[in-house]
């Protein structure tokens, strides 16, 4: 286990020196627990989670220092998200993590509706923004983006498998990496696709016969094992 001072250095180095490593889509399985989706959604957007995984066992105060310093590198999260991430890191990657449990059903597994707005706030908003307009040159907008409606499941495929490299949307170029969000449940991905398609005026772009994906549709997508190149090829074929 690394000492607490080392985690600060490792996190800074991973942000400053490893952009290409993050583009490789490295995936590390984190322990189940409330807030895990926020760690995936916000931390691995800029770098992989190797330093986080290697440093399991440090105290909550050390994790707090990591989060505070990450603000200098562009981390933008609300106070509530900060609290949830810190509680997760301090609990499940702290000195005395709880024993793993099995057989716990998610809210979606229980048959209850998933709030797409909540999923967006937890996993998408830091890059694509509250207004859906993205960040110039980095993250493309959702607002007014016709690619959302290329077919029923295209945006779900992007969410599952991620995409990296240069892309043009409405004549504007963007170049960054979107990591896979396959840690989200099938129902959560379906819900966030529906949310994105129904906000910021996007409902006016929806073809009359296009339906949002169901959780079963997302589950079917998981079997395809698509690469970033596959996503680009699918986009190109659907735009013809």
From TrEMBL:
<protein>
    <submittedName>
        <fullName>Cytochrome c</fullName>
    </submittedName>
</protein>
<keyword id="KW-0479">Metal-binding</keyword>
<dbReference type="InterPro" id="IPR051459">
    <property type="entry name" value="Cytochrome_c-type_DH"/>
</dbReference>
<keyword id="KW-0408">Iron</keyword>
<dbReference type="GO" id="GO:0046872">
    <property type="term" value="F:metal ion binding"/>
</dbReference>
<dbReference type="InterPro" id="IPR009056">
    <property type="entry name" value="Cyt_c-like_dom"/>
</dbReference>
<feature type="domain" description="Cytochrome c">
    <location>
        <begin position="111"/>
        <end position="200"/>
    </location>
</feature>
<dbReference type="InterPro" id="IPR036909">
    <property type="entry name" value="Cyt_c-like_dom_sf"/>
</dbReference>
<dbReference type="GO" id="GO:0009055">
    <property type="term" value="F:electron transfer activity"/>
</dbReference>
<dbReference type="Pfam" id="PF00034">
    <property type="entry name" value="Cytochrom_C"/>
</dbReference>
<dbReference type="GO" id="GO:0020037">
    <property type="term" value="F:heme binding"/>
</dbReference>
<keyword id="KW-0349">Heme</keyword>
């Amino acid at each position: 286990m690394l000492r607490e001072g080392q985690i600060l250095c490792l996190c800074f180095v991973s942000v400053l020196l490893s952009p290409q490593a993050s583009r490789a889509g490295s995936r590390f399985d984190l322990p189940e627990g409330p807030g895990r989706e926020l760690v995936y959604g916000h931390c691995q957007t800029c770098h992989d989670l190797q330093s986080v995984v290697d440093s399991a066992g440090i105290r909550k105060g050390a994790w707090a220092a990591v989060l505070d310093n990450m603000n200098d590198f562009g981390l933008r999260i609300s106070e509530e998200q900060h609290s949830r991430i810190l509680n997760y890191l301090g609990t499940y990657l702290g000195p005395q993590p709880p024993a793993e449990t099995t057989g716990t059903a998610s809210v979606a597994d229980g048959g209850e509706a998933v709030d797409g707005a909540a999923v967006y706030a937890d996993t998408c908003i830091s890059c694509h923004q509250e207004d859906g307009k993205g960040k110039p040159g980095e993250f493309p907008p959702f607002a007014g983006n016709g690619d959302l409606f290329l077919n029923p499941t295209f945006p779900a495929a992007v969410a599952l498998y991620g995409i990296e490299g240069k892309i043009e949307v409405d004549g504007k170029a963007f170049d960054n990496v979107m990591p896979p969000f396959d840690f989200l449940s099938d129902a959560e991905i379906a819900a966030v696709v529906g949310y994105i398609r129904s906000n910021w005026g996007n409902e006016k772009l929806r073809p009359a016969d296009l339906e949002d994906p169901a959780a079963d549709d997302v589950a079917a997508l998981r079997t395809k094992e698509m690469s970033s190149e596959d996503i680009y090829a699918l986009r190109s074929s659907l735009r013809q």
